[in-house]
Every structure is written in C-alpha cells, then in structure tokens.
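Worked example 3 (structure in, sequence out).
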C-alpha cells in the first residue's frame, strides 16, 4: 500500500482528500501546512507527497524545496486552483513548476479517480510504490 503525505492549509479540503485517498487504497497522513509536513517527512517514510501550492506561511514551493532537501527523489504532486497567470502579482505556476523536475500538477477541482491515478503514477514512475500498493487500473 502506498503511503501518501497530504499537505494543505484548508482543513475541510484536507479531510476530503484524506477520505478520497483512503477509499482509493492509500495509507494517508494529512497535515495542515508546510512546516508540519517537513517535520513529518523527517521522521516517516512516504511514497509520494501531495502539496497545495497556495498556503500561508510556508507556501507550496518552499515546502517542495524542503521535501527535496530531505529526500531529493521524493515523488511530488502539486495541486492548485490557479490555472493561469491572472496578473503580475499572481505566480505563474506552470513556469515555476517547469523548474521543479519530475513534479506533476493537478488543477482543482479534480475527481477521486484522477487524484488516485496521479499519485499512483508518481509513486510508480519514481520506483517508490510498495509491492502491495494499488495498481494503476484500480
């Protein structure tokens, strides 16, 4: 079973994502913020990390940098509700993500199957999926 760390500041969404992934067959740990994610990553192994890009305090990019520092090979799936650059003050997530090699981006809203498939693919492509984890066709 693949272990997933979910990082989001929205507690309601965090709870919803956790339920969706448990239903998809994942072992899930959910934390509300980048600082908590870094702490958990330093003490527990995960197959893939799901990170919201827009969070107060430590944002998604800072969290990803810390995840890479802890484990450079860690598969990461980012999620964001921002599809395009709305103004000069809005980050250009597509351009920024291109600099973070091997990272996948999910645009909110997404459904349970899309989420499960993206996390399985990320874990499997990096060779981090556990032997007994759910298959891509599940």
């Amino acid at each position: 079973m693949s272990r997933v760390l979910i990082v989001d500041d929205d507690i309601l969404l965090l709870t919803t994502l956790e339920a969706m992934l448990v239903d998809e067959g994942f072992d899930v740990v959910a934390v509300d913020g980048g600082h908590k994610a870094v702490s958990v990553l330093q003490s527990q192994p995960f197959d893939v990390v799901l990170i919201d890009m827009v969070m107060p305090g430590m944002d998604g990019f800072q969290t990803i940098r810390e995840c890479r520092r802890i484990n450079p090979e860690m598969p990461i799936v980012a999620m964001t509700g921002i599809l395009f650059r709305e103004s000069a003050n809005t980050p250009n997530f597509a351009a920024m993500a291109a600099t973070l090699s091997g990272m996948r981006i999910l645009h909110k809203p997404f459904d349970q199957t899309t989420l499960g498939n993206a996390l399985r693919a990320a874990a499997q492509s990096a060779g981090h999926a556990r032997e007994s984890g759910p298959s891509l066709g599940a």
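Notes: The longest strand covers residues 3-7. Helices lie at 11-23, 34-43, 60-70, 93-98, 112-125.
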